Write a sequence for this structure.
């Protein structure tokens, strides 16, 4: 085994650890000199409606936790480079941190800039990853951009540290870097960038408990934490062999898992999760439960993975089989973990929040797909080849490409040589079929005339983990008729995630409605707003808005069936649900009082 010199004790560790609230010596954690164990839970402000932040924080406290940890998603704050990062409304990180402090809990912040988190592009903005830049490295093109972001972000965190009277007790350096690369100059730059901008509380790294990952992702002088789903005893032995003076800290304990479209719903048995939790916190071990409350990938923020060259997009729900469910319900896992964590105080939160009564509402088709998309004006690029999402400055949504090739009479092959991720192909307004990376060819019959060829390309999720982070989206290779390239394209971005309520209403009112796709509207009367779960049992695939807010994707391949709609998105009186259907529009919207996340499959993530 390769030995790395152990980190210094807390009294003389680098970067101000001697002045931090959390310190360690002889394998034990201390808070202001008093023996301490971090009992944390992951809760992401960007996955929970701001009106529900306090409710969810209280539920973490009811679980028996003393700390909340959150990632910071750079692309959520700065989706466009030309705009200054936003820290208002839903993006008010400082308000979230203060709210945690008001509820008597500490805060751990994980600012990345890469966060993974099954979040689009791992939190990195696509305007950066669309460039020729070595991501997560000491490449100046990358660090200079991150430095400008940290200039905006880190002082806000620093002002809320415990040493400044706030609740922030620790900040993570990068994120599981050892499963990505081995550029230690970049890791040191990241750590120094945090310290140089005012972070004086505990700094730490977090990596999988393998020699390879720890070699790549740890730094001398910075506390080493692990991320794992099982076998904590083996991880404890490995970390202790490398850093005998440091306490055992698990920065992520995966007590559940996320889901991909087209697969089963991942769950983890209560006893399995609780047994591993016991093993982590034994003998003074510290833990962060990932996720304690998962929340929702609202809008188009869900990420994706790649497996054997095929994209596996993440579903809208981020329930993650967490002890606190997507809608805040307290599960059997919650009560079992609460016992293990030794919580004694009475619950302050109800086990379940009120829901609207189940009902069925007519879904009225208003506008066909292409007519509705064209109704919202957008700058169009004209070039010999289709423009990518990145060339159009588009992070998420769709691009409508139009060309006018002459197709000789007879049967031909239309080939989309590199489509990312999914394309609806039309000839003179008639749908020819759906193409993706696995099925890039469609038959087309020519008459010898010029046709209006339209290709509507959808980004179904940017990769959030591994070496393919930052891959571009759109029609990235030529479109062929047999072997001849189609040239001369107009490319119109469809920025669905950025549409205003007025633009959405304009699209839905454009008419006519003659096909089986497009925009449909359901009117919902509510006396008193409450949570509900939306289902489209007769529809195929598309997007759902509630009162102009993009809730997320629906897709009949599952596993997710219902979309969680939190009460703050509704108001007393008439509410409007708008559906953009891409494949087969049904005639009904169902409101249910329980989530349906699909057939379960037991899953535990392990490192070999």
């Amino acid at each position: 085994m390769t030995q790395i010199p152990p980190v210094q004790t807390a009294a003389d560790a680098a970067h101000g650890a001697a002045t931090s609230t959390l310190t360690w010596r002889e394998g034990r954690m201390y808070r202001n000199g008093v023996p301490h164990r971090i009992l944390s839970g992951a809760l992401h402000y960007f996955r929970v409606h701001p009106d529900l932040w306090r409710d969810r924080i209280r539920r973490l406290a009811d679980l028996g936790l003393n700390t909340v940890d959150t990632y910071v998603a750079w692309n959520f704050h700065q989706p466009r480079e030309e705009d200054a990062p936003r820290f208002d409304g839903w993006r008010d990180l400082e308000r979230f941190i203060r709210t945690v402090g008001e509820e008597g809990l500490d805060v751990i912040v994980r600012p990345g800039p890469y966060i993974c988190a099954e979040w689009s592009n791992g939190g990195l903005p696509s305007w950066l990853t669309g460039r020729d830049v070595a991501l997560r490295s000491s490449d100046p093109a990358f660090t200079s951009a991150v430095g400008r972001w940290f200039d905006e972000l880190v002082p806000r965190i620093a002002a809320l540290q415990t040493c400044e009277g706030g609740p922030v007790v620790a900040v993570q350096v990068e994120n599981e870097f050892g499963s990505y690369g081995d550029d230690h100059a970049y890791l040191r730059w990241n750590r120094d960038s945090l310290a140089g901008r005012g972070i004086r509380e505990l700094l730490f790294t977090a990596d999988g408990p393998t020699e390879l990952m720890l070699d790549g992702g740890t730094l001398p002088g910075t506390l080493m934490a692990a991320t794992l789903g099982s076998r904590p005893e083996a991880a404890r032995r490995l970390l202790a062999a490398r850093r005998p003076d440091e306490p055992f800290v698990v920065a992520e304990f995966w007590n559940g898992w996320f889901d991909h479209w087209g697969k089963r719903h991942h769950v983890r048995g209560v006893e399995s999760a609780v047994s591993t939790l016991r093993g982590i916190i034994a003998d003074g071990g510290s833990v962060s439960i990932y996720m304690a409350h998962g929340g929702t990938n609202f809008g188009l923020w869900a990420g994706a993975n790649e497996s054997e060259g095929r994209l596996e997009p993440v579903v809208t729900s981020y329930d993650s089989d967490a002890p606190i469910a997507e809608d805040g319900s307290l599960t059997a896992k919650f009560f079992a973990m609460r016992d293990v964590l030794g919580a004694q105080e009475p619950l302050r939160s109800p086990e379940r929040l009120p829901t609207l009564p189940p009902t069925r509402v007519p879904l009225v088709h208003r506008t066909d797909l292409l007519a509705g998309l064209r109704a919202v004006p957008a700058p169009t690029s004209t070039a010999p080849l289709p423009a990518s999402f990145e060339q159009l400055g588009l992070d998420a949504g769709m691009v409508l490409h139009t060309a006018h090739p002459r197709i000789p009479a007879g049967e031909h092959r239309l080939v989309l040589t590199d489509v990312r991720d999914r394309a609806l192909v039309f000839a003179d307004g008639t749908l020819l079929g759906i193409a993706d990376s696995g099925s890039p060819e469609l038959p087309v019959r020519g008459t010898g005339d010029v046709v209006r060829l339209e290709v509507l390309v959808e980004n179904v999720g940017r990769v959030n983990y591994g070496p393919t982070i930052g891959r571009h989206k759109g029609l990235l290779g030529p479109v062929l008729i047999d072997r001849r390239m189609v040239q001369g394209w107009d490319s119109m971005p469809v920025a669905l995630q950025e549409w205003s309520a007025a633009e959405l209403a304009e699209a839905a009112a454009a008419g006519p409605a003659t096909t089986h796709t497009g925009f449909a509207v359901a009117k919902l009367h509510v006396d008193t707003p409450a949570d509900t779960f939306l289902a489209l049992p007769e529809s195929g695939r598309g997007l759902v808005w509630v009162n102009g807010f993009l809730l997320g994707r629906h897709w009949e391949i599952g596993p997710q069936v219902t979309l969680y709609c939190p009460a703050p998105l509704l108001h007393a009186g008439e509410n409007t649900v708008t559906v953009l259907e891409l494949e087969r529009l049904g005639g009904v919207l169902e409101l249910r009082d329980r989530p349906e996340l699909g057939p379960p499959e037991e899953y535990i993530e392990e490192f070999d």
